[in-house]
Amino acid sequence: MQEYKGKIVLISGGLGDIALAIARAYLDNGAVVALSDRLTAEQAITKLQDFSFYVDRLNYQSIDVTDGIAVQGWVQGLATKYGRIDISIVNAAQVTLKNFIDLSFDEWQLEQRVNVDGAFFLASASAKVFKESLIKGNIVFLGSWAAHAVHAHLPAYSVSKAAVRMLCQSMALEFAPFGIRINEVAPGYVNAGLSKAVWEKSPASQQSAKAAVPLGEIIEVEDIARQVLWITSENNKHMTGATVLMDGGLSLIRP
């Protein structure tokens, strides 16, 4: 069954582990997927070499999500090329592992520009196209349980993800009358990106993280992909402004 056949899906931060898992899930279900990230098209080839089977339904463009004009051009260009867009996954993110006292203003500002401004640019451009085209589209923000629980070594990231959560809710209310659904997935410990790199160097640290999760499991990228596809499914048409917190119970012990 290809539930998303003919649907046009946009994913920012598209070359990251989570984004690629989401892309593959949509492609397996018949969608056309457009990825954006900071790498050049030539640099992206290595990341996308396992996607050759989907070459006719996958495209990539180098985009800086902090450049609002570039993001708007990307969204409008895809809407023109395909005649529509249906789903936008707001995934691009910046993470700085520093305590607040060691965090420079430049590091703080970059994190807010990527995580908050970048989210705003893609979400707003997508919502406007949905509204103007009378498309009952979907926007999904990739949030984090860090928006809910305080982390001493992630102040800039936690603040940015808390802002994204309110952006999601504010937009969901405004665009609900047009049938546009806007939601968020907020994972806990994921075997991807920076965490994966740390755990590969120190398996003991991964075991410690796993032991801290009440359900006793680290989230795999495929788990997140399944949640995203469930949120945007036609069978889930009444959900908007919601945060799907998939942290294995971490927020229950760190409220």
Automatic annotation (TrEMBL):
Glycoprotein as UniProt keyword: no
Gene3D superfamilies reported in the protein's UniProt record: NAD(P)-binding Rossmann-like Domain
Entry GO MF terms: oxidoreductase activity
Keyword presence, Hydrolase: no
Keywords: Oxidoreductase
CDD domains: SDR_c
Family: Belongs to the short-chain dehydrogenases/reductases (SDR) family.
Name assigned to this protein: SDR family oxidoreductase
Species of origin: Sphingobacterium alkalisoli
Taxon lineage: Bacteria, Pseudomonadati, Bacteroidota, Sphingobacteriia, Sphingobacteriales
